[in-house]
Design a protein that fits this description.
Elements (H helix, E strand, L loop, with lengths): L5 H4 L2 H17 L4 E2 H10 L6 H13 L3 E8 L2 E9 L1 H26 L6
Antiparallel strand pairs: 1-3, 2-3
Length: 118
């Protein structure tokens, strides 16, 4: 069993960025989309984020080889950068999902436990 270090848990910013990376990969796994559309979808799903948070993550995921990007004309102004998952991105998403499911079960068990009964 793997354990999360206590010091890591208290750094909400890093913790949330890691979770947000996985969520961005999931959103982009559906179809190609430009960055602001990904932000809109993530907001619609309840994650309170802004472009200033998401765009650096998109760039980091692209630099890791998890996303590919293509510039396309926009009917509303400058070209838009459309993102989609690479094979490595699909693999990273699967790994994130496995980790998330495992950790969420563990954390839920701890949070819901009646410690006096153990």
């Amino acid at each position: 069993m793997q354990y999360i270090g206590v010091g890591q848990m208290y750094n909400d910013t890093q913790f949330m960025k890691g979770i947000l990376e996985g969520c961005i990969l999931k959103v982009l796994s559906s179809y190609e989309m430009y960055g602001y559309r990904a932000v809109e979808i993530i907001r619609e799903l309840g994650f309170d984020v802004n472009e200033a948070t998401v765009y650096p993550i998109l760039l980091r995921l692209q630099n890791k080889g998890f996303l590919k990007a293509e510039r396309r004309p926009s009917p509303l102004g400058p070209d838009r950068k459309y993102f989609s998952l690479t094979k490595e991105g699909e693999k990273s998403l699967a790994e994130f999902k496995d980790s998330w499911l495992r950790f969420s079960v563990i954390v839920n068990n701890v949070m819901e436990a009646e410690i006096n009964d153990l």
